[in-house]
Amino acid sequence: MRDLKNQYVRANTCIACHQTVEIPLLKAGHPELIFELDGQAVSEPKHWRESTNWSGAQVWLVGQAVALREISWQVNTNNPFDEKLTARWQASLWLMRKMSVLLSAEGAPLFSAPDKADAVCKDADKLARDFAGMLWTAELSHKVLGRLAATGTDFQESGVPAASQARRAERLVLGLDRLAEELELKSKNSKADAALERLFGLAQSIPDFDPRKFSLALQEFSAALNEK
Ligand code: HEC
User: Fold this and answer.
1) Residue 143 · residue 215 · CB < 8 Å
2) From ligand 1's centre to the CA of 162, what distance in Å?
3) Of 67, 84, 59, nearest in space to 5 by CA
4) Closest C-alpha residue for ligand 1 atom 1
5) Sign of torsion over alpha carbons 78, 81, 83, 89
6) Is the Cβ–Cβ distance between 206 and 170 less than 8 Å?
7) Which residue's CA is the closest to the ligand 1 atom numbered 36?
8) How many CA atoms does the CB half-sphere of 181 hold within 13 Å?
9) By C-alpha distance, which of 18, 60, 55, 65 is closest to 39?
10) What is the pLDDT of residue 52?
């Protein structure tokens, strides 16, 4: 029996089966798994009671920090180097570094050595625990959504290959989706909702991913948020 009310424990429980797939198994054709705790916890009929101060945005964040910890562990232990795994790792780290900086005022720790997978693994675990321990507010959800929406210029960085940008987009849209759900954008801001649909469409195919188009769509999404 696990204490699933505790978001950190819940994330650890589900990720055990919902993210890490051994590289040889992936090469043999097993589909990649991408972990997103909030949406998956909505789809999986709940067999636990939520604590009173529940936020989907916070659950998403805790899940993403645990996801980063697990990929960091896999990167650190997997030899030889795997290009796809590394790109997924970097995208996950990219996202969580933004969140750690954003929420450092609330006590979230920063990454001590972002280029070393073993250090990131430890820091991501600390981040997950700290995110799970925060007293979450709607203001924080708005702050996180604003920060995610403001990453458009990152998709114009010339030094980042399109395949890595596609991985960033893949992680980002899942976060935007959970935040949009939490803040009821579908009913409250139809322009932002339409822009989000476009972002999902653009993020869907990794081989065809166009960072420039995605960046523009993200800027439209951000503008729609600021209109309200
Ligand atoms: C022991 C391994 C294991 C654990 C732990 C586990 N799952 Fe799963 N889960 C699976 C497997 C295997 C499937 C696929 C079942 C199938 O397709 O028949 C699945 C399917 C799902 C699905 C439906 C398919 C999808 O991806 O949309 C959801 C949602 C889900 N799990 C959520 C969760 C959540 C939330 C937790 C934690 C509370 C969790 N799971 C913990 C193994 C696990």
Assistant:
1) no
2) 31
3) 59
4) 17
5) positive
6) yes
7) 14
8) 15
9) 60
10) 63
Residues enclosing ligand 1, CB less than 6 A?
A: 4, 10, 13-14, 16-18, 40-41, 43-44
Give the pLDDT confidence of 56-91 residue by residue, as tens digits. Answer: 999 999 999 999 999 999 999 876 778 899 999 999
Burial state string for 85-103 with b = 16 or more CB within 10 A and e = fewer than 16: bbbbbbbbbbbbbbbbebb
Are the C-beta atoms of 176 and 148 separated by less than 8 Å? yes
d(CA 147, CA 150): 5
Tell me how far apart the alpha carbons of residues 69 and 44 are, in angstroms, rounded to a whole number.
23
Q: Which two tokens stand for residue 151?
A: 């990453």
- Cα 38 to averaged position of ligand 1 atoms, centre (Å): 13
Length of the chain counted residue by residue: 228
Mean pLDDT value across residues 156-174: 94
Q: By the 8 A CB rule, do 188 and 224 touch?
A: no
Q: From the CA of 164, how far away is ligand 1's center (Å)?
A: 27
Quick count: other Cβ atoms within 10 Å of Cβ 171? 24
Query: Tokens for 8?
Result: 């950190």
